[in-house]
Design brief:
Bound molecules: FE2/S2 (inorganic) cluster
Number of domains: 1
Helix content: 10-25%
Structural class: alpha+beta
Largest sheet: 3 strands, antiparallel
CATH superfamily: Beta-grasp domain
Radius of gyration: 11 Å
Order of helices and strands: HEHEE
Number of strands: 3
Strand order of the largest sheet: 2-1-3
CATH topology: Ubiquitin-like (UB roll)
Strand content: 15-25%
Length: 77
């Protein structure tokens, strides 16, 4: 989420990045391995909200490799 906002890309949220609303979901097109591992809480929220296997909560996923080629999208961009 921080990277998106820094790039001027809007990110939906109603939980202020606490990982509970699922509105910030993004589809990871490239660079999945350059993101922090998903924890149990994020997985639970994604499953509860019917997320696809290639989606992450942008507020929970951190970029761990700044050199990586990462591409994401959402339904509202
Ligand atoms: S901002 Fe609510 S889950 Fe990410």
């Amino acid at each position: 989420m921080a990277c998106c906002l820094a790039a001027g890309l809007p990110v939906a949220s109603s939980c202020s990045g606490r990982g509970s609303c699922s509105l910030c979901r993004v589809r990871v097109l490239r660079g999945w391995d350059a993101l922090s591992p998903m924890d149990g809480h994020e997985l639970e929220v994604l499953l509860r909200n019917g997320a696809a296997p290639d989606e992450r909560l942008s507020c929970q996923a951190r970029v761990t490799d700044v050199q990586a080629d990462i591409a994401i999208t959402t339904g509202y961009w």
